[in-house]
Design a protein that fits this description.
Layout: E1 5-10, E2 15-22, E3 26-34, H1 36-39, H2 47-69, E4 78-84, H3 88-105, E5 109-113, H4 114-125, E6 133-138, E7 143-150, E8 153-159, H5 165-175, H6 182-190, H7 212-224, H8 230-256, E9 260-264, H9 271-278, E10 284-286, H10 290-293, H11 297-309
Parallel strand pairs: 1-4, 4-5, 6-9, 9-10
Antiparallel strand pairs: 1-2, 2-3, 6-7, 7-8
Bound molecules: 5'-O-[(R)-(carboxyoxy)(hydroxy)phosphoryl]adenosine and zinc ion.
Length: about 325
């Protein structure tokens, strides 16, 4: 079969990224322009500022992706972009740009679900990984335990009923004074702490998650004891949330009799979480390289490829869907 070169675009939150990926697995270029430095001043992502930043840089980022790949638009076979879930104004920039490219180049267009992109990051890191397997998507906006039946066929086994796990990491970081984005900072500080503080773990009779209870518990503890050891608090928080995601994942593995599990999303960069999953007996554990865990367009290009070869393309009526669900 002829090689398929995909140009992928990601703009759902605070990263403008354009990547060129061959046959869904081989990254030729992956340019990421992060807005973290701008949003840092506000303690979180400001949607309007995010949209404006995407518009300002998307053309440059695309040119750079082509340059690094030593390619021109003529080499592109398919254009893919994230069309949800995410911030509507931010998504619209990538969607409009992708539609314009697809129309001008007369090449197929594929709208990709951002969560599907996170899952696909594993296909880039592990060239032999094939469905079926389980995937735990843990990011700033999502906490999903999914049965990947096939490349474009998903069954959600459990999801958060309130906050995403990454939101909890970011909130804990803010409360203990670490700033935004908190996940990597909690990860680092927790290494010098001892998990000696008792925090609540929430379980349901299905595989759903809840992280608002633990978030509030950390908030209250810190408020009542301003001198509490922050490193111990971070270590205890990490231990508690990890215990919950590991327990639910193990339950799912048992119920479905599947021993392959992949992690995905920004929080899967967490060193304690990675280590804990590696220690699950008889499990085959996968997680993407760090740069592919957080938002990037290479993962979107990979998901674009699998949609394209399965005949799932979009037309120029494609629109941003901020609350898009996986499997829709
Ligand atoms: O996947 P992502 O870039 O964006 C979403 O789709 O939401 O995930 C961002 C989230 C943030 O909450 C960030 O704090 C968290 O991933 N994160 C981490 C780590 N690196 C990023 N959380 C814990 N430990 C890390 N090392
Ligand atoms: Zn993401």
């Amino acid at each position: 079969m002829k090689d398929v070169i995909v140009l992928g675009i990601e703009s759902s939150c605070d990263e403008t990224s354009v990547a060129i990926v061959k046959n869904g697995r081989e990254v030729i270029s992956n340019v990421i322009n992060s807005q973290i430095k701008i949003h840092e001043n506000y303690g979180g992502v400001v949607p309007e500022i995010a949209s404006r930043c995407h518009i300002e840089v998307i053309n440059q980022v695309t040119k750079e992706a082509l340059k690094q790949a030593n390619m021109t638009f003529a080499d592109i076979d398919v254009v893919g972009c994230t069309y949800g879930p995410g911030l509507v104004g931010a998504l619209l920039v990538g969607v409009s740009y992708a539609k314009a490219l697809s129309f001008a180049l007369n090449k197929p267009l594929v709208g990709v679900n951002h969560i599907e992109g996170h899952i696909a990051a594993n296909y880039i890191t592990f060239k032999d990984l094939k469905p079926p397997f389980l995937c735990l998507i843990i990011s700033g906006g999502h906490t999903h335990l999914v049965h990947i039946k096939d490349y474009t066929d998903f069954e959600i086994l459990g999801k958060t009923r309130d906050d995403a796990i990454g939101e909890a990491f970011d909130k804990v970081a803010r409360v203990v004074g670490l700033g935004y984005p908190g996940g990597p900072k909690v990860d680092k500080l927790a290494k010098s702490g001892t998990p000696n503080i008792d925090l609540p773990r929430t379980y349901f009779d299905n595989l759903d998650f809840s992280f608002s209870g633990i978030k509030t518990a950390v908030l209250n503890l810190n408020h009542k004891n301003p001198n509490i050891n922050k490193a111990d608090l971070c270590a205890s928080f990490e231990k508690a949330v990890t215990e919950v995601i590991v327990t639910n994942s193990m339950k799912a593995m048992k119920e479905l009799n599947i021993n392959k599990i992949a992690l995905a999303g920004g929080v899967s960069a967490n060193s304690y979480i990675r280590e804990s999953f590696k220690n699950i007996k008889n499990a085959e554990v996968y997680y993407p390289e760090i740069t592919l865990c957080t938002d990037n367009a290479a993962m979107i290009a990979s998901a674009t490829y699998y949609n394209y070869i399965n005949g799932k393309t979009s037309d120029l009526t494609l629109n941003a869907v901020p609350n898009l669900k996986l499997g829709e």
